[in-house]
Amino acid sequence: MKKVLRPETEKALLEAGFSDKEIAVYVALLSLGKGIVTKIARTASISRTTTYDVLDNLSQKGLVKISGKEPKQEYVAESPERLEKFLSEEIEIKNNSLNKVKYIIPELFSIYNTKEIPRVRYYEGIDGLKRALEDTLSKGDTEILASGGAEDMFEAVGEGYSREYFRKRVEKNISIRGIASGDSGTMKVAERNMEELREILIVPNDKFHFSVETNIYNDKVLNISWKEKFAVMIESKEIADAQKKVFELAWIGAREMGRK
What we know:
Number of strands: 10
Radius of gyration: 27 Å
Strand content: 15-25%
């Protein structure tokens, strides 16, 4: 009889990278202790041929061992503790791979040709807005040119997340120069301008309320609609350069307004 796991247990195994069939066969073998393929397949409610393939995968992961030879070959379940060891080993391997990839990223960037390939990306929903913002942190030691207001940002993604985003930006030494509507959120954020590598010119909120934020960075232009909860990112050097010029004109205008 097929053993039914608690939903949270099955979810944990799926998130750990196991397929539905691997889970079914693994659980079947755990409940049996050991058995031939036919018995395991029947218990897992999976075809005999598929069970062979799945058992081979589980064996490579060290969760199953083979005893005897065909036609009386039996598969024996290892202790569930082996699952933790397997995942720990996988994490170590992935971390080693990640460290190696970090080392070669500069070389890959040196041959990455984006000059003739403009890109447009669309982001939707709260998670999409957060992914769009995270892209502005993809390259450290740079400057973001921006226009917007903190109040709408706080309402859309939360002040807690926004503050964490600011922290990550500072950590990567990414400064921001912006024109901001003088809403309550912006005035609150402005108190930490120096610590958060931020230089902003504040314009009257009643005349220049920016419900859409624009960020110009790394040959990209990101427009975020906080109220409608979507964002569009254009990756194009030509468009980014043009928007930088528009921003600089606006910067001059905002500075002159502040002097009056």
